[in-house]
Write a structure and sequence with these properties.
- The structure is a single chain.
- The chain is mainly alpha-helical and about 200 residues long.
- The chain has a single domain, classed as Orthogonal Bundle (Helix Hairpins).
- The chain has four helices and no strands.
- The C terminus is likely disordered.
- Keywords: Coiled coil, Membrane, Phosphoprotein.
- One of its GO terms (biological process) is regulation of autophagy.
Length: about 200
């Protein structure tokens, strides 16, 4: 349980990081477009502004750094999403095993109940012998009931964890798609800047 809580915290933290990177990305895109417009204007008039040139070079350097950082963040998100999918698949397998075990225990419990009823119905056994035969069955019944309850609780917990992981996976896929589009947008003006 603590693993999943820690995992959820890490996912939340990573989403905040990605949101901040997204904001920086939009600011840089705006600055790059503005600088590109100025560069074109000065290119048309033939005037060269040294300060503008330095500003553009600085913007391009920052944009490249952010581009590299975003690329690494995207790789991390992709890796985390893959791990989440693997974990989800393991939980699905465990849930199947738990459901099978639950069914087996229910069948065993029914069998025990039937045996118990048959033994209670037998009248030719002495009372003490009947008691000695019934006690283990009742104990077995109680034990099976406890096991069945435990299996049911475990199955419910696994379903809850799977739902949580599915939700996180969907969020990650959404974030990943969003940041891929932003990363592509940020990357595309760079060759123009380098060419200028």
């Amino acid at each position: 349980d603590s693993f999943f809580e820690e995992d959820a915290c890490q996912l939340q933290e990573m989403r905040h990081e990605l949101e901040r990177a997204n904001k920086n990305c939009r600011i840089l895109q705006y600055r790059l477009r503005k600088a590109e417009r100025k560069r074109l204007r000065y290119a048309q008039t033939g005037e060269i502004d040294g300060e503008l040139l330095r500003s553009m070079e600085q913007d391009l350097k920052v944009a490249k750094d952010v581009s590299v950082r975003l690329h690494h963040e995207l790789e991390n998100v992709e890796e985390k999403r893959t791990v989440t999918e693997d974990e989800n698949e393991k939980l699905r397998q465990q849930l199947i095993e738990v459901e099978i075990a639950k069914q087996a225990l229910q069948n065993e419990l029914e069998k025990m109940k039937e045996q118990s009823l048959k033994r209670r119905g037998s009248k030719d056994l002495p009372k003490s012998e009947k008691k000695s035969q019934q006690t283990p069955t009742e104990e077995d019944n109680e034990d099976l009931k406890c096991q069945l309850q435990f299996v049911k609780e475990e199955a419910a917990l696994m379903r809850k964890k799977m739902a949580k992981i599915d939700k996180e996976k969907d969020r990650f896929e959404h974030e990943l798609q969003k940041y891929r589009s932003f990363y592509g947008d940020l990357d595309s003006p760079l060759p123009k800047g380098e060419a200028g």
